[in-house]
Amino acid sequence: MDSNHEGLPGLEPQNQENDRAKINGRSANEEAWHATSAAADGNESGTIYSSAVSFEDLDISPKLQAELLQGLYVEMGFTKPSRIQAQTLPLILQHPYKSLIAQAHNGSGKTTCFALAMLSRVDASVNQPQALCLCPTRELVAQNVMVLEKMGKFTSIRTTSTIAVTPASASRQADPFVGP
Ligand SMILES: Nc1ncnc2c1ncn2[C@@H]1O[C@H](COP(=O)(O)OP(=O)(O)OP(=O)(O)O)[C@@H](O)[C@H]1O
C-alpha cells in the first residue's frame, strides 16, 4: 500500500486498509490491486529485469496465446498486467526459465503469475499431468482451480484438484461440531 497514506486514527493497520477500501467503495483486494497497479505506472523502473507493459508483451506459448489472451481479457476482465505480474511473468515465461520466489501485497495479482505460467508452459496436446500447484489450505485449492479454469477456459487444458486427508482432518470431518 502507499506508504504516504496517513493512518486512520484508532485503527490497526489492517483495519485501516479495510476501512479505506470501504470508504472508496472497493473491496480490500481491489484496493490493493489499484494501489500496486498505480505504483507500476509510476517512476519505479529501477529493476534490472524487463517488465511487461501488456499481456501481449509476454512470451505466452504461441500455440495457446490467442486462447489465453481471451481468457485474461474476456473471462478475467483484465486489461493489463499488475506490477507483480509485469515483473515476474517475463522471468517465468521466457527461455531460459528461471526459478522464482516472489513476494507482494495481498490482492496484488500473484495468483495470475503462477496460473498463467502453468497454463502457458503445459503442452495441451499431451494428455498427462504437467503442472503441480501445492496449496497450504483447501480454500486456496478451490480458489486456484477456479482461476485456472476461468483463465484456461478457451484452451483444452484441464485442471483437477486433490485434497490430502490427514488423520487430523479426517477426525474434523467426522465430528461436525469441531471448527474448520
Ligand atoms: N492484471 C489485473 N487486472 C485487473 N484485476 C486483476 C489483475 N490481476 C489480478 N486482478 C484481480 O485482483 C484481485 C486479486 O488478485 P489475486 O487473488 O491474484 O491476488 P493475490 O496477490 O494472489 O492475492 P492473495 O495474496 O490474497 O492470495 C482478483 O480479483 C483478481 O481477479
TrEMBL record:
Key words of the record: ATP-binding, Helicase, Hydrolase, Nucleotide-binding, RNA-binding
Placement of sequence motif Q motif: 53-86
Gene3D superfamilies for this protein: P-loop containing nucleotide triphosphate hydrolases (3.40.50.300)
UniProt EC number: 3.6.4.13
All copies of domain Helicase ATP-binding, residue ranges: 91-180
Location of region: Disordered: 1-42
Keyword Ribosomal protein: no
Domain DEAD-box RNA helicase Q: 53-86
Reaction equations catalysed: ATP + H2O = ADP + phosphate + H(+)
KW Manganese (keyword) present: no
Basic and acidic residues bias (residue ranges): 17-33
Protein task: RNA helicase.
Protein family membership: Belongs to the DEAD box helicase family.
Domain comment (free text): The Q motif is unique to and characteristic of the DEAD box family of RNA helicases and controls ATP binding and hydrolysis.
Protein name: ATP-dependent RNA helicase
Annotated source species: Coccomyxa viridis
